[in-house]
Amino acid sequence: MKTSRLLEVVNVSKRFGGLQAVDGVSFGVDPNQVVGLIGPNGSGKTTMMNLISGALRVSSGDIFFQDRLISNRPARTIFLRGVARTFQLVRPLGGLTPLESVMAGVVFSRRALWGREAVKAAERVLARVGMGGRETQPMAALTYIDQKRVELARAMVSQPTLLLLDEWLAGLNPTELGEGIELVRSIQQDGTTIVLVEHLMDAIRSLCDTCVVMSAGQLIAQGTPDEALQHPSVIAAYLGEADAT
Ligand SMILES: Nc1ncnc2c1ncn2[C@@H]1O[C@H](COP(=O)(O)OP(=O)(O)O)[C@@H](O)[C@H]1O
Ligand SMILES: [Mg+2]
User: Fold this and answer.
1) How many angstroms is it from 56 CA to the middle of ligand 2?
2) Could you give the CA distance from residue 69 to residue 35 in angstroms, rounded to a whole number?
3) Which of 116, 137, 157 is the last residue of a domain?
4) Which domain holds residue 206?
5) What is the atom index within ligand 1 of the atom nearest the CA of 40?
6) Which ligand does the CA of 237 lie closest to?
7) Residue with the nearest Cα to atom 11 of ligand 1?
8) Residue 210 C-alpha to ligand 1 middle, in angstroms?
9) pLDDT digits 0-9 by tens, 177-234
10) In this structure, which residue's CA is closest to atom 16 in ligand 1?
11) What is the CATH number of the domain that holds 165?
């Protein structure tokens, strides 16, 4: 399949035993866009991120990145082609400093670096996410947003073409949220394409060029944030979700 799109998800399904977690979903992501993947809890968003990154195999359908089939390729292969991700749960590597934590990513990254070069690369990306001068503080002493900055730095150190952020903004206080939104926007402005799973409507409205809305595994709406969020099935799907503000 030949398209101008960076990522093309074509009729993708994922079953876990009897559960249809993703059900015939298709959407595309253009270069340098921020695309929001939204929907109620359990709608299949994280599963979709796992299918794109190769953490999970698709049951059927195809995923293309830069016109090459990536679905059911090893996660490492997809990563080396330029797809990096953060995880929904912040998982600071126990006992490491931010520098060590990012260094662990450097040695496995697309351009593997060693020694002094690896340290410089890790310091550069930590400065980029706002951790400059604090590279050697114990992770345990960091605020929540700073732990999230380190998680982001770990993903960014490979200089990905496509960055997958799974609820990276979740749990931030209002001040931190503003900083987090600005940081994501600046990464887009540097030329990175971003797919983000997010519940916070303000973040979606201010960051996303387009939105893909999932409910019970199916794509129920897509378009600009305003179009997607006004769709009757989206309003219905979100009714009763306390965090859909
Ligand atoms: N590894 C798994 N094994 C079995 N069921 C799973 C697995 N991962 C997710 N699910 C189920 O798939 C559905 C979609 O989950 P998920 O993709 O995490 O949703 P979301 O991220 O939108 O909240 C849920 O019903 C969830 O329980
Ligand atoms: Mg999820």
Assistant:
1) 14
2) 20
3) 157
4) 1-82+160-245
5) 22
6) 1
7) 21
8) 23
9) 999 999 999 999 999 999 999 888 889 999 999 999 999 999 999 999 999 888 887 7
10) 44
11) 3.40.50.300
Same domain, yes or no: 10 and 45:
yes
CB neighbour burial string for 7-23, b if at least 16 within 10 angstroms, e if fewer: bbbbebbbeeeeebbbb
Q: Are 198 and 169 in contact (CB under 8 A)?
A: yes
Q: What is the whole-number distance in angstroms between the Cα of residue 42 and the centre of ligand 1? A: 6
Q: Is-above-0.70 flag for pTM? A: yes
Helix axes 98-107, 115-128, angle to 10 degrees: 120
Would you say residue 140 lies in a domain? yes
Give me the count of residues in the chain.
245
In a domain, 56, yes or no: yes
Ligand located closest to 18 CA: 1
Q: Does 183 lie in the same domain as 63?
A: yes
Of 25, 2, 3, 5, nearest to 209 by C-alpha is 5
Asked if 71 and 139 sit in the same domain, the reply is no
CA-proximal residue: ligand 1, atom 7 (nearest): 16
Domain count, the chain: 2
For residues 164 and 183, membership in a common domain is answered with yes
Asked if 150 and 173 sit in the same domain, the reply is no
In a domain, 143, yes or no: yes
Which residue has the CA at smallest separation from atom 20 of ligand 1? 42
Q: How far, in Å, is the centroid of ligand 1 from the Cα of 230? A: 25
Tens digits of residue pLDDT in 193-208? 999 998 888 899 999 9
- Residues near ligand 1 (Cβ within 6 A): 16, 19, 21, 39, 41-47
Please state, in angstroms and rounded to a whole number, the distance separating the CA atoms of residues 154 and 91.
11
> Cα-Cα-Cα-Cα dihedral of 188, 33, 31, 89, to 10°?
70
